[in-house]
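In this supplementary section we document a worked example of the pipeline. Step one takes a protein sequence of length 270 as its only input; no multiple sequence alignment statistics are reported here. Step two produces a three-dimensional model, which step three serialises into structure tokens for compact storage. The input and output of this example are shown verbatim.
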Amino acid sequence: MSYLPPQVWIAPQMGGRFGGLNRPTAGARHTQTLPKGDKPYQLYSLNTPNGIKVNIMLEELKALGLLDYDAFKIDIMQGEQFASGFVEINPNSKIPALVDNTGDEPVAVFESGAILWYLAQKYEQFLPTNPKDHAQALSWLMWQMGSAPFVGGGFGHFYAYAPKPIEYAINRYAMETKRQLDVLNQHLAQHDYMAGEYGVADMAIYPWYGALVLGKLYVGENDNHAYDAKTFLGTNEYSYVLSWAKRIADRQVVQQAQNLVLTPITRGDE
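The serialised model returned by step three reads:
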């Protein structure tokens, strides 16, 4: 029997990898003060694609001697993103979030793209100065922020994490993911990097699309099937994306960022 939407939607009990965490409401679910180190910046994150984006920027700036930071793990499978301390700095309860303590008062920044742009502007690094490339960097950063949910919440969710395979959903989001890869491939056929030299747009796009074509994203198995997004999507056909991804992956700082050690926080209600 096919599903018929009710007149008024009521949240059901959801299955799948993330089903037990999902609710149609925002805000803190438990009280927990975030730990703080003694470095100028405090990162609260997880080494997912969105987290790795910010890791790369922080590690690049650290390698230049411009900043230092403490990095704490927010375990989203344990619901740590719904702790009161984290919600205070990110009301959307998504990783990553960053606190800048270099000024007179702390500045909290959330959303990975916003953190990248904030740091790039503050330190005048990895951001083109000429108007044309500057506009391109901003455009491609916004493209990534708007497009990646179709890859993660769309394709990745229904291909790898949903309680059961749904043909229409997988086809819908596989189609869009391949279209996006083709957008990148056509651009990178004419450019070594996304906007002039290596910079903020590359840092944003690589952990999603670079990881995808390199076979590092959505590979494994669940109760339903084994999954391998690289093979399923035929990502080898996007040769320019693949060459670009290898250039980024070869950077030592990027390798460090992908394997960044995050300090676990101790759960304790206050």
